Structures are given as structure tokens and as C-alpha cells.
């Protein structure tokens, strides 16, 4: 197997929130963090690492609160960077899964998320300075469906917060071992249910 299996999680993630004046709100969880919070003018954000027992799989929840009497439109970017540049993976956006696929040798991760409006609106598979790109590049430059080798990648969500309202966003990473187990269980269940037929009652006309 490749480095993903041997070294565990070979990347770190960062959360960037924009859309509120010129302020940029960031969260950078460390490997041991389970809860973080931050705030800027008008919006408060909390990040929670939800506990799980599956090694190589992580689930996070972000909570947003609008502190103003006005509707707030924000953009949330989840950015990933590899830790060791000797392990630069192949990254691509999978339209079928609506997620990012991170591959190295025979190991891989499925990275995705779900916000109030569904999955990410934009995907990025190459290394980009997101902060500078927000001001200097049109949004379509973030659509990078395939990158042969990439040391950074990310996803973008748009969230609308009602006055004094709340919203939440989930993002996750699932390792190949757990994906294979899920696929096996799904296939077994599908085959089992596929052999079952619903009971049909004959209606007798009198």
C-alpha cells in the first residue's frame, strides 16, 4: 500500500470564511483538536470534530451564527495541504460522487461535504492561494476537475444566514479501507433485497 495507509492522514485542512466586509475568518485545526471557535464582525463560527471509531475516517461539523439583524451571505472554503511533499497525490473531482478523490498508489481518500444548499459549488485540485484568488480571479478559475499531482486542493460552499440565524456544514474524509467495507456491505444488502419480491395479493371480484 501507499503512504496514505502507512502514514495515516497525510494532509491538513484549513477553513476560510469570506463575504463579511474585508475580514477573513480562518480556522486551522491541529491533529489533536476536537473543538475550535472564532468570530469576526457579524458572524461566529464553531468547528467540531465528531468522534468516530473507524480509523482513517473523519467527520467535522461547522456551526455558523449571524450576529446581526441583516441577512448574511458568506462563502466557506475548505482547503487541504499535504504535509510531506514527497507524498504528492493524484487529485480529481468525481462528478458521480460529488466529492474529491485523493489517490496514491493503491490507497485513496474520498473527501466531501454537505451544506444547507447541498454539496460544494466549486472544486479546486491544484495548489492556489485562495486568499489572493478571491480578489484577482473570476470564480470559474476554481473549477479544476483533474490534477496529475497536487499538493493542495479544496472545495467552496455558499451559505445564507438569516438575521440572527444559524446554519451548519459537514465535511468528511473516508479512507479506502472503510470505503471498500461500505461497498461490500452495500452490495451484499442489494443482492439480498434484490431476491425479495413484495407480496402480491389477488383481488377477487365478486
UniProtKB/TrEMBL annotation:
Domain of life: Bacteria
Name recorded for this polypeptide: Uncharacterized protein
Amino acid at each position: 500500500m501507499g503512504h496514505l495507509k502507512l502514514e495515516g492522514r497525510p494532509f491538513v485542512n484549513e477553513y476560510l470564511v469570506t463575504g463579511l466586509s474585508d475580514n477573513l475568518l480562518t480556522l486551522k485545526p491541529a491533529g489533536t483538536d476536537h473543538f475550535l471557535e472564532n468570530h469576526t464582525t457579524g458572524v461566529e463560527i464553531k468547528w467540531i470534530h465528531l468522534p468516530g471509531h473507524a480509523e482513517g475516517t473523519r467527520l467535522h461539523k461547522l456551526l455558523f451564527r449571524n450576529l446581526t439583524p441583516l441577512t448574511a451571505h458568506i462563502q466557506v472554503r475548505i482547503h487541504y495541504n499535504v504535509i510531506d511533499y514527497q507524498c504528492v497525490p493524484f487529485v480529481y473531482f468525481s462528478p458521480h460522487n460529488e466529492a474529491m478523490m485523493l489517490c496514491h498508489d493503491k490507497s485513496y481518500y474520498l473527501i466531501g461535504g454537505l451544506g444547507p444548499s447541498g454539496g460544494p459549488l466549486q472544486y479546486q485540485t491544484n495548489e492556489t492561494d485562495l486568499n489572493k484568488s478571491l480578489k484577482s480571479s473570476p470564480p470559474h478559475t476554481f473549477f479544476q476537475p483533474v490534477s496529475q499531482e497536487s499538493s493542495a486542493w479544496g472545495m467552496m460552499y455558499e451559505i445564507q444566514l438569516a438575521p440572527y440565524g444559524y446554519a451548519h456544514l459537514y465535511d468528511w474524509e473516508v479512507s479506502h479501507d472503510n470505503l471498500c467495507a461500505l461497498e461490500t456491505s452495500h452490495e451484499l444488502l442489494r443482492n439480498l433485497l434484490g431476491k425479495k419480491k413484495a407480496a402480491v395479493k389477488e383481488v377477487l371480484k365478486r
